[in-house]
Amino acid sequence: MHVNKPERNQMCCIQGRMILLDLDADSYPVYNNTQSFFGQPFIWCMLHNYGAVEGLYGRLSEVNRGPVWARNFSQSTMIGVGLSPEGIEQNEIIYEFMNEMSWRTTPTDLNFWVADFVDRRYGAVNAEAHLAFRSLQTSVWDRPTGDANQGHYALTRRPRLDLVEPIWYDPSDVYFALEHLLNATQTLPQSPILMYDLTDLGRQALQVAFHTVYGTFQEAVKVQNLKNATKAGRIMVAILTDMNALLSTNGHFSLEKWVDGAKSWSSTPDEERLYVQNALNQITLWGPDGNIIDYANKQWAGVVSRYYRPRWKIFLQRVLESIQNSKPFDQGAFDAEVFAEVEKPFTLRQYVPDEEDGTTGGTTKVLHTLITKYQDIFQ
To answer: What is the DSSP letter of 251?
Structure first.
């Protein structure tokens, strides 16, 4: 049973017979507003991720102090710490740190811990890698408030003219980290984990760049500036194409891997078609009519090229047409069109891998090219 704020009378009948989970305690703790759950034993949990979405996000400082505060709370009934995410295959640093909190009675020195984490992760001490992670530690991995925006990115949402994507960090911290982690490849062993991190960090940089250019597009549309809106739209499509190319260099960011996993559970052709359809639906529409659309969105090669980019191309075309014809943009008509032309077919059509989405390697080469190409944004 999930209860946002339990009442005392709900607790009295289960006294001592149930362990409660403070499910999202790193963002919205309940124990401190319920007298430690009115005496019931509870576990301080970090939820962190909804829908197994991509995107760098975390609350390192809160995870560092939260369990300690709960343990020392007046008449605390806390009996342990736990993880309660909907997906864990991202932001590994957050989960590794959280798991260590079982053994801590006081907050630790985050600067020291993160530097040690980097050394262990890459098997060597590297000043450039330290600079990269230090930049992320104090920005994207340390959101000061609990209202997470993870997954609700302009790039991965059905396009609109009024999308809002709060960013709690300076995008330059991500660009700085990418530059220095790329520099680290000159001396660090070219391990799969380093290539994974570079791909993920490059993905984040392009995600934020898309958000920036989308803002420029919004401003141009407001004043009906067709020239500037057209220019911004072209850059947005280019970013999506380049993101797909970057993600294609690493098999961990592959739609094909997801589809192959679904196929592996089937024993008949009919089962295979059903499992693949369900797998594709889960990461897009989540329901026959987009019932929880984009809740479990994925920034993967194949999803970007076949789902996000086509949606945005139709949207941009319709908005520019509205400016040319001096007519308001019809969001409802666009929603119906994009559902029929992109979203529903993505789920129902037979998945066939193509060259654009295949794993190619060459992550560092692609990143050097992208940093040069988008140097005016990556500042």
So the answer is: G
Q: Is the pTM of this model over 0.90?
A: yes
d(CA 234, CA 316): 9
Whole-number Å distance between alpha carbons of 244 and 134 = 27
Burial 117-126 (b: 16+ CB within 10 A, else e): bbeebbeeeb
> Cα separation of 232 and 142, whole Å?
31
Give per-residue burial for 229-239: e unless 16+ CB within 10 Å, then b.
bbebbebbeeb
DSSP character at residue 81? E
211: Cα within 13 Å, side-chain hemisphere: 20
Q: Note whether 374 and 178 are within 8 A (CB).
A: no
Render pLDDT for 332-352 as a digit per residue (tens, 0 to 9).
Answer: 999 999 999 999 999 988 777
Give me the amino acid identity at 372: T
Nearest to 28 by CA among 56, 62, 55: 62
The residue to which tokens 């499992």 are assigned: 275
Q: Are the beta carbons of 37 and 20 closer than 8 angstroms?
A: yes
Render pLDDT for 227-262 as a digit per residue (tens, 0 to 9).
999 999 999 999 999 999 999 999 999 999 999 999
Q: Which residues contact 350 (CB under 8 A, 6 or more apart)?
A: 273, 276
Distance, in Å, from the CA atom of 174 to the CA atom of 141, rounded to the nearest integer, reads 11
End-to-end CA distance of the chain: 47
CA distances in angstroms from 42 to 3, 175, 370, listed in the order given: 14, 40, 48
Rounded-to-integer distance, Cα 36 and Cα 70, Å? 8
- Write out the DSSP string of 57-77: --BHHHHHHHHHHHHTSTT--
**By C-alpha distance, which of 167, 165, 149, 295 is closest to 218?**
165
Split at pLDDT 50, 70, 90, the class of 147 is: low
DSSP assignment letter at 358: S
The DSSP 8-state label assigned to residue 192 in this structure reads H
What is the rounded distance in angstroms from the CA atom of residue 46 to the CA atom of residue 310? 36
Assess contact for 28 and 146: CB atoms under 8 A: yes
